[in-house]
Amino acid sequence: MDATSLRRKLTVSAALGLLLVPGCHAAEDALPYAEAIRFSPDSLEHLRTHTVAVQAEHSTVSYRYPVLGESHPLTIEVRTRMAERQTAFLEELPDRGSPGLTQDVELLAASEHVIGTRTTAVTSGTPGDGTEAATLWYDSATGEVLPWTSLFRDEQALENAHLAVADVLQDGYDLSFEQLPGLVGEVAARAEAGSDPASAAASAPDEASGAAGAAGAPRQAPAEESAEQTPQDGGSDLADPEQAWEAAERWSASPLADLAFSTAGGLAVRMDPAVVPSAGRVDEVLLPVEPEEAEELLSELGYHARSAAVAGNSDPGDFPFDGTLTAEGATLDCERLKCVALTFDDGPGEHTEELLDTLDEYDAKATFYVLGSLVDEFPEIVERTHAEGHELGNHTWKHDDLTTLSAAGVTKDLDRTDKAIQEVTGELPPTLRPPYGALNGTVRSATRHPIILWDVDTMDWQSRDTDAVAQHALEETQPGSVVLFHDIHKTSVDAIPEVLEGLHGDGYHFVTVSEIFGLGGMEPGALHTDARVS
């Protein structure tokens, strides 16, 4: 469907949206008000959400996000941003109190063309208590995750959108020209002075507008940087992902960064009530940009997004994502995060289920290098390990030194173990860890698996000392580390609660070997010890 067709369908879609959006009301408010379209992922029947709460001695963190598909770009971006926010929160904990961070995702639109998300982060018990919100948009035609600026034609349209907000504040909320907050006031001042919007979009704000808080202005840029970024011929092409992201950085303090569509088919722009004194005692101010004004501002993606939102959205079963919409898969970009891969060798065994219970308390995913002979002995434990999102790796049939075998012997041993794991989990193990870390050219050429060793060896098999094992893991782990434990030892399993709490408090995220390395970059027989970023 082209943009023109979408515009023609707006009137019908708007009427339908009024019927479909919960909480919608037709009565006129005393002040201009937009009914924003935001809805829970739980309202879509076939869409699964993942919810986690981690209660530690020093803090509580919780989050919820929709699972859009195996390694889906939007799932990865949303989840990674949540993880970045969690790390920043944990790294800045106060010395006392019970601080908390809660993050949640709402949907702004959902169709076969586009998905819009709004992530909120609420902090408590810290000096910076409050709520932050950020929106992202996924364009299924290109497979790109895009910022809010991609909903607009160009930066001229961004300027005009801010002027529309200024009009609402002046005409509907009785703000004087001088009271217009932050970036809205700056854009209005530029328009009043007759500035060229194309060059104004990259101009740096002054101190007064930059101090306006949630409705403040874009990042200050050196003069030479602004000159390089000044759009020509009316502004950046926001249909280009790179230019849209660059524009989002320049306009990062815009109230339109927390933008939704309204049930009337226009825009709903959220502003902090503190900068709109006539709004009264309300939690948020949602300013309307009327449909006819929005009509001239939106890009083709913007029209698709508005159509999806106002029409009541679609069931995810209709999305063209190859049947993987609710599948698991990678959910974090470890190149941007403090990730660690905890690995456990020689099981499963009598202590593995206790370990699984502990890992679950932190939503920690680990990798278990299992022996094929024990898979046959403990199939229920292997099945549970897989079902809870952990990864199973090949550790040979019964812990033989592979360097003592011929190529045919290596292949036979590994194939037998692969088959045992696949029969229980339905999947082949993606990686190999040779017993003792013993390798030679024969082993490397005979396996179809990437080979994973480690960079942090807790020596738990030797010391059998819970405190020493935990201390070593906490002291030696770095972002990208692969840490070696053995879940057949009770002393090792007993060390894991301290390891998890300590690393969690330092802002780490616990992922599988495949997530930390990325299987796309690992070749059969290739050796990997860690994913540290130099």
Looking at this protein, list some descriptive labels.
TIM Barrel; single chain; six-stranded mixed β-sheet; 534 residues; six-stranded parallel β-sheet; elongated; disordered N terminus; Heat Shock Protein 90; 17 strands; 2 domains; 20 helices; alpha/beta
Tell me the number of structural domains.
2
Q: Please count the helical segments.
A: 20
Strand content: 15-25%
The gyration radius over C-alpha positions equals 27 Å
CATH class of the largest domain: Alpha Beta
Largest sheet: 6 strands, mixed
- Annotated CATH topology of the largest domain: Heat Shock Protein 90
The residue ranges in which pLDDT falls below 50 over 5 or more consecutive positions are 1-29, 197-202, 204-233
Task: State the helicity in percent bands.
Answer: 25-40%
CATH architectural arrangement of the largest domain: 2-Layer Sandwich
Q: Looking across the biggest beta sheet, what order are the strands in?
A: 1-2-3-4-5-6
What is the terminal-to-terminal distance?
A: 47 Å
Structure description:
With 534 residues, the chain is α/β, with parallel strands linked by helices. It folds into 2 domains: 3-318, Heat Shock Protein 90, CATH 3.30.565; 339-528, TIM Barrel (Alpha-Beta Barrel). Helices cover 36% and strands 17% of the residues. It has 20 helices and 17 strands. A 6-stranded mixed sheet has the order 1-2-3-4-5-6. Strands 10, 11, 12, 14, 15 and 16 form a 6-stranded parallel sheet that branches. Strands 7-8-9 form a 3-stranded antiparallel sheet. Strand 1 and strand 2 form a beta hairpin. The longest helix is centred in the first third of the chain and has 19 residues, at 73-91.
